[in-house]
Design goal:
It contains 11 helices and 4 strands; from the N terminus they run αααααααααβαββαβ. With 301 residues, it is of the alpha+beta class. It is elongated. The mean pLDDT is 82.
């Protein structure tokens, strides 16, 4: 048993992923605590809710503490509605993010006391903060982590109401940005929030893929039926099956073709590793995509 645990958790690959996840979450916490929160800028997510609450209802409580409790509540909800597997996958990122935020807040306090602030240039804050946030989230996602937060209600909407992740993200994050602008009595913050999301999304995409955030994934596996079922039920994506024959083995089978977003691709990779670690897959950039789930919503029965 000890040997098995050692192989699984104390190998070079695991340690590298663990360090990169922590670096990614730290970058995200730094971007939030040094750029967004001190300037009361709300750009969606649980962090945005924390900033709103710390400036209205819980004025004597640190934003990091508020985020910690919101994430704890969302984790309990995810355990109830999304199951143990999702809970385990998101618990580390959900807990460590507000912890890093707390330390960044303390460091910012020391810097602020010495009048070494970043000033009030909102455009500079959005550009630099968005780039660092995108870098952090990209590193975390690329190494298989999830920071939880508003991802949890998004996946609940997908599971129970069949609302695509992209649609629920726009509604949830958009509502948080607008609410933040109303609370701050500055509607220009909506535009800055949208710009921040676009910049962080662009950088995230380049960190994860180095380009456009939609990919066509081709999968060859003996367990193609199981993988297909999980893609449909867990990712809410459809699959094309193509008859194929191995050029060397002459063995006939089926190849699955699936078009996915950045986040969905890394969820798919986890699914494939669980079902068939020996599966062969290759990924190509999709420069343009039209159809259900991308240029128009799917029709559900």
């Amino acid at each position: 048993m000890k040997e098995l645990l050692k192989k699984k958790f104390f190998n070079k690959k695991f340690l590298k992923e663990f360090l990169m996840i922590n670096l990614g979450v730290l970058c995200s916490a730094f971007a939030f605590s040094f750029f967004l929160d001190p300037n009361n800028m709300v750009c969606g997510g649980v962090g945005g809710i924390g900033t709103i609450l710390s400036n209205t209802i819980f004025t004597s409580i640190k934003t990091s503490v508020i985020v910690f409790f919101i994430n704890a509540i969302l984790l309990i909800i995810s355990l109830i509605f999304l199951g143990k597997a999702f809970f385990i996958k998101t618990v580390y990122g959900s807990v460590i993010f507000p912890v890093y935020m707390f330390f960044c807040e303390e460091i910012y306090k020391i810097i602020d006391k010495n009048d070494l602030t970043f000033g009030n240039d909102k455009m500079l804050i959005v550009l630099v903060g968005g780039a660092i946030m995108g870098l952090g989230l990209g590193l975390a996602i690329k190494n298989g982590a999830s920071t939880g937060g508003v991802d949890i209600p998004q996946y609940i909407c997908l599971k129970y109401f069949k609302i695509p992740l992209s649609a629920s993200m726009i509604v949830i994050d958009g509502s948080i940005v607008v609410l933040g602008a109303v609370v701050a009595k500055d509607l220009s913050n909506v535009l800055y929030g949208v710009l921040f999301i676009l910049i962080s999304g662009y950088v995230l995409d380049n960190v994860v893929f180095g380009g456009f955030n939609v990919r066509s994934v081709n999968i060859v596996s003996k367990k193609h039926a199981q993988i297909k079922e999980l893609i449909i039920t867990k990712l809410d994506r459809t699959v094309t099956e193509v008859e194929s024959t191995g050029g060397y083995s002459n063995v006939s089978g089926k190849m699955l073709i699936c078009v996915l977003s950045t986040k969905e691709y890394y969820n798919l990779r986890s699914i494939i590793n669980e079902v068939d670690p020996e599966a062969f897959l290759f990924v190509t950039k999709a420069s343009e995509v039209h159809g259900a789930g991308f240029t128009y919503d799917k029709q559900y029965k």
